[in-house]
Amino acid sequence: EAQVTQNPRYLITVTGKKLTVTCSQNMNHEYMSWYRQDPGLGLRQIYYSMNVEVTDKGDVPEGYKVSRKEKRNFPLILESPSPNQTSLYFCASSLLLAGRYNEQFFGPGTRLTVL
Amino acid sequence: GQQLNQSPQSMFIQEGEDVSMNCTSSSIFNTWLWYKQDPGEGPVLLIALYKAGELTSNGRLTAQFGITRKDSFLNISASIPSDVGIYFCAGQRASAGGTSYGKLTFGQGTILTVHP
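Above: the input entities. Below: the structure tokens describing the complete assembly.
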């Protein structure tokens, strides 16, 4: 089954304790992206990647890191989490064909609480 | 980063009623999208619109791409309980070779509650 998977689905942690949220897709998509969802703000892009070893900042990258060493994986790293990073996080992926919209497929989400 | 202005923020309706929501932007988008998010899940694409003035239906859902390319609306007719969820509009600017390629800008979402 074609899908985007995220782990963990739920995480409670404490300020300053490094964590990684994994994202994997089995659709051979070039484009991958991380979003955070907060009430009243919709989804905001954190980082995105257009291919292996190619990453760039989205709208709210502060406090986050990403890597794209393999095409299928795009982990989100919080080196020193803070309470304002408590949020619902989504990973998404798509093809990257020129001249048309490429549907982004979203993972199930990771709910992170930083105490 | 820019966000789209989506309204209303929430709606409480009776089963069978029609629903309308819209999205506006201060700048132009090449593609408008409508997503639905069920509780505990990621957003799923409902409708994609590619041309100004385009009107597209998907079952009981109808969406339109505004003539100015700065707005879009979504209508749901004869609502049913499973329509409950959060609806998001999103815009995309296609920029071949540019860093905005693939980037989606989302509205704040409309929370829909349907009473049986």
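Note for the figure: The two ends of chain A are 36 Å apart (CA to CA).
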